[in-house]
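Folding Problem: From Residues to Backbone Shape
Fields: amino acid sequence; protein backbone structure tokens
RECORD BEGINS BELOW THIS LINE
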Amino acid sequence: MFDDARKDDAAMNIIAHIRNDFQEKFGIPRQSGVVETALSEIVFEPAYRCAEALRGLEGFSHIWLIWMFSASTDKGWSPTVRPPRLGGNTRVGVFASRSPFRPNPLGLSAVKLEEIVLQSPEGPLLRVSGADLLHGTPIFDIKPYLPYADSIPQAKGGFAGARPEPRLEVHAAPEVLQGLPEGKWETLREVLALDPRPSYQDDPNRVYGFAFAGRNVRFRVNGSALEVLSLETLSVDAGKEKMG
């Protein structure tokens, strides 16, 4: 038998939240690092706004984020799941996947550390790129990425061994892009080129949409061509912040 005496010590503190342009689950890159231009900020909770806690971090190019699948905590867990990489129809064990429907809703992402900001109105914060987290996601811990220990070139990747590559040609009329904040188009284009749709959906007449950078992105896909139809400004939501 195992000693369960330390069960009460399993509670974790939220040390930070992430701030970025991904305002809903649909459209978020399915793994960290696949959209390298996607920028985020890690904003610490008041108790952890301590520059001393970041001392030495400037020597690392990448960091690990340990975080909570906060949008799925009320949905429970399943012993088997249907990964998007297998078309959404084949089931595998939850421990052979990165599904959010886990016994403990923990995520793990490696991101590039772009900048350490020691002084801001919100205290010290981190600017990172390549994150696959929903805006507002709680973060439990941050650890440095160690290339000699964390990179295993000969490792097998199972059914998800190949890095996802852009599969769609993205088109948008100039007048449509006028509705997007400056500097956001390249990231949005990369997200769309990777095809955010469920693998089992391929209706050329269906219009899809998701929230990104304060805009409702509406698009349609026909074969390998994706057309951005509109970028409508979202109504102001006091519960969501947008990166500047």
